[in-house]
Predict the 3D structure of the following.
Amino acid sequence: MIVDLRSDTVTQPTAEMKEAMLNAIVGDDVLGDDPTVIQLEELVANRFGHEAALFCPSGTMTNQIAIKVHTNAPGEVVCDELAHIYRYEGGGMAFNSGVSNRLISGDRGRFTLEQLQAEINPDDVHFPPTQLVALENTCNKGGGCYWEMSEIERIAAFCRSENIPIHLDGARLYNALVAQKTSEAEMGKHFDSISLCLSKGLGAPVGSLLTGTKDFIKRARRIRKILGGGMRQAGYLAAAGIYALENNVERLNVDHDNAKVLGKVLESKKAIKKLYPIDTNIVIYVLKDHMDMQDYLLDLENKGIRAVSMGAQTVRLVTHLGIGANEMEYLTQNL
Ligand SMILES: Cc1ncc(COP(=O)(O)O)c(C=O)c1O
């Protein structure tokens, strides 16, 4: 048996999702007339209480477009030091937008209002103007933890009072919403833009949405075209996204429960020095110093269990809709 825990991006579309894709009515989305893409964009904008949304090929693209539209070089983006936009998007902020970063050392990817306030630049020629604050929820490198709504509220109110836009990298936002039992509208009202991925826990093969005001999305659409992200009969992909949003949200609880079970299994392993708290579908743990991580990952691979490294001695497992009862039984016995 192969049990792939490298990421929740490895899911295969189910038969029902493929059926929805095959039956999609499509047009040419670059010309603006693909009805299924329009339906998906309206669905997501409405759920989050934003005026408009834009369907893009990836979460990296939605984040990078948001940064490009919100900023104007030479500006500065404030985010946590673990943020995906800073660590894993190929230096895109500098490459695409010519902005620098101010990094906060938070708690597993989350910071407080007071930490943020200390990093806002004064209006002084020595400093780049602070032009964007970016949060990530759930935090990938922080082990899938989510932000307290009360802290988001404080930070968003501060950003509004300072006239600094606030973006949310919500690649796994539904994991946070389901775990916290929070509505999309409750989350959406605090952000100027949100990036939401369909191809992670939600189980669609491709795609992310960027949400915001009509004017913001109009400008985002222009950047999407420049980056080569305009797709033609994209409705086939959008249909998978609509299916995912209508069918795969509540089931994220199963992934969260499975992750906790894996945590229990790992707790008793001698090779492990530290296990991060498990809040959603990501399990991160640190191996003891004497362990060779490559050998450890190879041993797992030889047992058919796929995992990835997240830095020195650090291993990540991610549960998703491809991990059912059989896979869990196998993992319980073989991890
Ligand atoms: C938190 C976070 N943001 C953004 C992305 C980028 O998404 P994509 O792989 O679709 O570019 C990822 C991907 O894993 C992620 O974990």
User: Anything to note?
Assistant: The chain has two domains: 3-9+250-334, 14-247. Residues 58-60, 63, 84, 136, 140, 169, 171, 197, 199, 208 surround pyridoxal-5'-phosphate (CB under 6 Å).
